[in-house]
Amino acid sequence: MPAEVALPDRGPRAADAPAALSGLLVIDFTRVVAGPACTQTLADFGADVIKIEQPGKGDDTRAYEHAERGGESAAFLSLNRNKQGMVLDLAVPQAREVARALIAKADVVVENFSSSVMEKFGLDYQSVAATNPGLIYCSISAYGRTGPFAWRSGFDPITQAESGFMSLNGFADGPPVRTGPPIVDLATGMSACNAILLALAARHRLGRGQHVEVALFDVALAMTGFFGTAYLMNGVNPTRTGNSPNDSPTVGVFEAADGPLYVACANDRLYHRLVTEVFARPDLLIDARFATRKARWTNRAKLRAMIAEIFAAEPMDVWISRMNQAGVPVGRVRTVEQAFNAPEVRARDRICRLPHPTATSIPNIEPAISMQLTPTVEPSAAPRLGEHTFAVLRDKLGYTEQAIDTLRQAGVFGKSAGSA
């Protein structure tokens, strides 16, 4: 078994620093990736996020197999930081009453159930908006909540495939390739977070909330970006080009003497620097076959072979140093292990460890957003299943111990719920 990665403890957050979303109450009915990624960002910046899960099983990611520590999975821990965990069996009428009571106090509700589930429970936007007109209600789905495809369930790789996004990944002589990390899920989470923040800004001006919606398929389609726009302009179906956009001879992976580099020499100015300052080969600029961008593309196979031969003659550190000095973008092609031990990660304090009640400590990847005046909150580990259920009932809804016991006996927290 590999040794545990040594991580620093997280440094303390400035005690007097305000949180951007402090005081915002979010009721989180989401699971898996896109929804939890959205609500984790809200929680990182001070929102009071209450994650509601199914008793017994909880979020599907609790059982994901990437890694496990203290009974908690890497997937769940990576997506549910800074949240309070609560269990409710929404099939029980009293549980739905609790959910409605929480929604009535909330600023934001986020859900990513299958189509019609929230309607079945009487927790959809139309059912709850009348009692909370300022509510921002965000629905995340595969194909939208309206229209002929709203009934379809779907996941990240399905929308990568159906949107054409996957057809752009891989090499021309190979099959389409999905991204390793669930990029559409994560981008959908970011989009949902943006939608919520936009709706909060609108509420400040208009005095009322609204229903906002984000669909994985829509996000995946948008992520085809200028490839999709180019198709709409010229009718030419874009194809896979591997690591070199548009089959550029000076962008992509090259092998140094001791390993791979990614070079992004994407314009005439950078090409001039590469061949004169880095390679000391002005002939590659004077030669008519390579003098212009169009000429280089026409003769790309020949030029790429020549550049590959040059790179192969020296080790990575030599090329990295020369190219950095010349201002030519370059980077090592790292494994995850190499990346997480790289100086860029350690110098920027991107990873740390957090205390955890059953695992002693867990690793943590810091949020990618930095704000000068309103930084992230002091982080806490993702909650154990139902960890804060009774505390939420007491603190948010004012339930007495007797009332909580009545709910327990009714099966609101599952069949074998204890006390907390």
Question: What features would you describe in this structure?
Answer:
It is elongated and about 85 Å long. The protein is α/β, with parallel strands linked by helices and 420 residues long. It has two domains: 25-225 and 350-409, Crotonobetainyl-coa:carnitine coa-transferase, domain 1 (Rossmann fold); 245-334, formyl-coa transferase, domain 3 (2-Layer Sandwich), CATH 3.30.1540.10. A six-stranded parallel β-sheet has the order 5-2-1-6-7-8, sandwiched between helices. It has 18 helices and 13 strands. The chain has helices at residues 34-44, 74-79, 93-105, 117-120, 125-128, 156-162, 183-206, 216-222, 225-234, 268-278, 283-286, 293-298, 300-311, 316-326, 336-340, 343-347, 389-397, 401-409; strands spanning 25-29, 48-53, 68-69, 72-73, 84-87, 108-111, 136-141, 210-215, 251-256, 259-264, 330-332, 351-356, 360-365.
How is the secondary structure organized here?
Blueprint: E1 25-29, H1 34-44, E2 48-53, E3 68-69, E4 72-73, H2 74-79, E5 84-87, H3 93-105, E6 108-111, H4 117-120, H5 125-128, E7 136-141, H6 156-162, H7 183-206, E8 210-215, H8 216-222, H9 225-234, E9 251-256, E10 259-264, H10 268-278, H11 283-286, H12 293-298, H13 300-311, H14 316-326, E11 330-332, H15 336-340, H16 343-347, E12 351-356, E13 360-365, H17 389-397, H18 401-409
Parallel strand pairs: 1-2, 1-6, 2-5, 6-7, 7-8
Antiparallel strand pairs: 3-4, 9-10, 10-11, 12-13
Helix pairs in contact: 1-7, 6-8, 7-8, 10-14
Question: Any key phrases for this structure?
Answer:
2 domains; alpha/beta; 420 residues; Rossmann fold; formyl-coa transferase, domain 3; 13 strands; elongated; 3-stranded antiparallel beta sheet
